[in-house]
Task: structure prediction
Amino acid sequence: MITFAHIRNTRNRGDLASTPGLYFDFGAHRFADIRERHAGVVIYGGGAIGQWLARQRATGIAWGVGSTVHGATRVAGTVPEGMRLYGSRDDGLPGAIWTPCASCMSPLFDASYEIRHEAVLFTNGDRATARRYPVNVTGLPHKTNHGSLEEIIAFLGSADLVVTNSYHGAYWATLLGRRVVVVGAYSSKFYGFRHPPAIGSDWRKEARRAAKYPDALTDCRAANVAFADRVRECLRS
Result:
């Protein structure tokens, strides 16, 4: 039986929605928190767990894994020894296969969403993050990453521009074809996107250079399907 291990004891929808086990069928499986002990075939990810895998010297398959180094402005981390496959959501990580978060496979991204706002604010709802890295943006419709995936995607899709300090807020808005400005980019994880958002403290100024990426959803899904094929081949060997 395959174990899909990711961060489960959380309200962060990005961590909850990132496991590939929600989108790909590899047969009998179970879901478990990454901090538990696991036996047999383990597929880790997604989320910012790259450093955890390195510290634990985990074996198995990493899918859509990222690393986060606070204060850094470039892709960080390394590919741990002993992993059978290592798919990284951070573009440009040496030795890794670029594999963005598997949540791009959700059918929610196939729906159309009416643009009703010029801009919305989407923030990380973690209290410690909010205290350490406050977002000084006011006057915009606001939601955190503690809602359901359906609610969050509909909210992000309701605006032409998404202002955020959430990794998945930036990722999902990009997949929806929206422009993105990351404010308060507090770690390296915001600098590893293949389809990069604008980054800066003044969201109105950065909005002028925020780009749309019409092919982002297709690119990310294709990378995940290709990685799934690699996983199936790996499991047969």
Q: What stands out?
A: The mean pLDDT is 95.
